[in-house]
Design brief:
- By secondary structure, this protein is of the alpha+beta class.
- The chain has helices at 32-41, 46-53, 97-100, and strands spanning 2-5, 12-17, 22-28, 60-66, 71-77, 103-106.
- The chain has a single domain, classed as 2-Layer Sandwich (Alpha-Beta Plaits).
- The strands form two sheets. A four-stranded antiparallel β-sheet has the order 2-3-5-4. It has a two-stranded antiparallel sheet with strand order 1-6.
- The longest helix has 10 residues, at 32-41.
- It is elongated.
- The two termini are 17 Å apart.
């Protein structure tokens, strides 16, 4: 079994502001096979994502797959209030990068660049 970076399986990986105290992350797939493989992998659990972002697990408010949209959603508490002193990303648009490199065990060739999948 090989491993594939999440960025090669998902169509969209993004983060954004979810109010003055929260950030939200979306991972959206355009192929059911890729979505199901990521979902089954166990790579996107609240515990693993808390370690990835170096935050307490209790700071993850939502970490869930949403089958009708073939998407994963995570909402976390901000480290500080939006716009507060020292805050560097008021829109939360640059926080998704660590998600892109999560390695997903893959039994098949489901990369986004593969037109056959």
């Amino acid at each position: 079994m090989s491993e594939v970076p999440l960025r090669e399986l998902a169509q969209v990986i993004r983060s954004k502001n979810a109010g003055p105290f929260e950030l939200t992350f979306d991972i959206i797939f355009d192929r059911k096979a890729a979505y199901e493989e990521v979902k089954a992998s166990g790579a996107l659990t609240a515990e693993k994502l808390a370690r990835l972002y170096n935050i307490p697990p209790d700071d993850i408010l939502v970490a869930m797959f949403f089958d009708p949209a073939m998407a994963f959603k995570m909402t976390v508490k901000r480290r500080g209030q939006q716009g507060s002193s020292g805050e560097r990303d008021t829109f939360g648009a640059a926080q998704h990068a660590p998600l892109m490199d999560i390695m997903i065990p893959s039994r098949s060739n489901l990369r986004t660049s593969d037109p056959a999948s």
